[in-house]
Write a structure and sequence with these properties.
Layout: E1 25-30, E2 34-38, E3 51-55, E4 58-63, E5 73-77, H1 91-98, H2 109-115, H3 120-123, E6 126-128, H4 134-137, E7 147-150, H5 154-160, E8 180-182, E9 205-207, E10 210-215, E11 222-226, E12 235-242, E13 245-249, H6 257-261, E14 269-270, E15 276-277, H7 283-300, E16 304-307, H8 312-317
Parallel strand pairs: 5-6, 6-7, 7-8, 13-16
Antiparallel strand pairs: 1-4, 2-3, 4-5, 9-10, 10-11, 11-12, 12-13, 14-15
């Protein structure tokens, strides 16, 4: 995955070079709690008895305009697991959590920020949620003055549920309508009826091998990536952290790093009613999203460091890159 040898035909897919006055972002990992994932639900050729306790990582991103000495804009990407599991009000969610034991909800994103001197209630400008599953949505009430950014269709699902995320698992009122804005639907979306009336003014454009990306700050430093397949509205992030250095935050595009490296594939298993299911709402789209990311890494070589939310190997090997220390 880290092959830096490029084929000439790949040149047009390389990530763009920095501008003369290029802005960059800083990024640091945040603890977001831990849950246990049984292999038999996620990867091909699983050990049927093996469950791995994995992190639900979040990330702090700091953006400062090029040449500016003003206070940085701070973004948190994902909020992890609620530190108080009783705050999951729905019985169906509580039952689901029992299938992911052991679950550890401390330290969480809030305590991680506080440990570095940042107050979530005052110091975070934006929260970008990759998606609204229980182990990523955390406690939005910790961020009363932040603007929440979510993928298109997210607010519809919170109100109506979705086939892969039924209404009985939805935490009603999880996000404040006054604080939350959706990204617009991608041009080819077949679900524009699910889009919220309140949308950001961003426009989707391709970057490298990724067909739909939003230049969030308009300076090429933070890109929100449409990453369909896992759940409607699932997004990733691509961060420009140096002149030839990027970080890709993959959320739940896959739940095991071996899927990204090609050692394993996404598992389809019997749902107990004679039908196949997987960890993703739309498996063909999830596979295509992974393929696009794999191509991004292959084409751009060592310039891209990638991290998926539940990557226990990355977390265990990079403890020195969790806040208050910085990755870049």
């Amino acid at each position: 995955m880290g092959d830096s040898q490029q084929r000439p035909s790949d040149d047009g897919l390389r990530l763009p070079p920095p501008a003369a006055d290029q802005a960059y972002v800083k990024v640091s990992a945040l603890n977001g709690g831990f849950l246990t994932l049984p292999e038999r639900n996620f990867v091909t050729d699983p050990d049927p008895e093996k469950g791995t306790t994995v992190p639900s990582m979040c990330f702090l991103i700091e953006h400062r305009e090029s040449g500016s000495s003003s206070k940085p804009t701070r973004v948190v990407f994902d909020l992890g697991i609620k530190r108080d599991l009783t705050k999951y009000a729905q019985p169906a969610t509580q039952h689901h959590i029992t299938t992911r034991q052991p679950v550890y909800s401390s330290a969480d994103a809030r305590s991680s920020l506080l440990s570095g001197g940042l107050d979530p209630a005052k110091d975070i400008d934006y929260v970008i949620l990759s998606h609204i599953h229980w182990d990523h949505i955390g406690l939005p009430s910790d961020y009363p003055h932040s603007k929440f950014i979510v993928g298109s269709g997210t607010l519809y699902i919170l109100e109506n549920g979705a086939p892969h995320y039924p209404h009985e698992r939805i935490e009603k009122g999880a996000l404040s309508a006054d604080q939350t804005t959706e990204l617009p639907p991608v041009p080819e979306s077949e679900r524009k009826h699910m889009a919220a009336a309140s949308q950001t003014r961003h426009q989707w454009q391709p970057i490298s091998t990724l067909p739909n990306a939003v230049d969030f700050f308009g300076d090429g430093s933070l890109w929100i990536i449409d990453a369909p397949g896992h759940i409607h509205g699932h997004v990733n992030a691509l961060l420009r952290v140096g002149p030839n250095r990027w970080v890709y935050l993959g959320g739940d595009c896959c739940h095991d790093r071996r899927i990204m490296t090609g050692e394993k594939q996404i598992l389809e298993y019997d749902n107990g009613q004679g039908k196949l299911k997987s960890a993703h709402a739309e498996l063909p789209k999830a596979r295509k999203t992974i393929e696009n990311i794999q191509k991004l890494i292959a084409v751009n070589g060592d310039a891209v460091e990638w991290i998926v939310a539940h990557d226990w190997k990355w977390a265990s090997e990079n403890q020195n890159r969790f806040f208050p220390r910085w990755m870049y």
